[in-house]
Specification:
Distance between the termini: 39 Å
Largest sheet: 2 strands, antiparallel
Number of domains: 1
Order of helices and strands: EEHHHH
Radius of gyration: 14 Å
Low-confidence stretches: none
Structural class: mainly alpha
């Protein structure tokens, strides 16, 4: 289990690599957008919906923010 704690926010606990297991994608490979869309639509069950929403929402937010704040030359 992995927990992300930030000051002033509720901690998020999740199983790292859970969406890979649910979608049948090998660890270390990027999950195809079609599989993420299917998971969000409920094609992998209710757990897959939760995992896909976490991956595209809370976890991806940090990556988007870092890219936005990166210095341009």
């Amino acid at each position: 289990m992995t927990t992300i704690k930030k000051k002033g926010k509720k901690p998020i606990t999740f199983h790292a690599g859970g969406l890979h297991e649910t979608t049948g994608t090998p660890q270390g490979e990027k999950i195809p957008a079609s599989k993420v869309a299917k998971a969000k639509a409920g094609g992998y069950g209710p757990l897959g919906v939760k995992q896909a929403n976490l991956a595209t929402g809370a976890l991806a937010k940090g990556r988007r923010t870092a890219a936005k704040n990166r210095r341009r030359k």
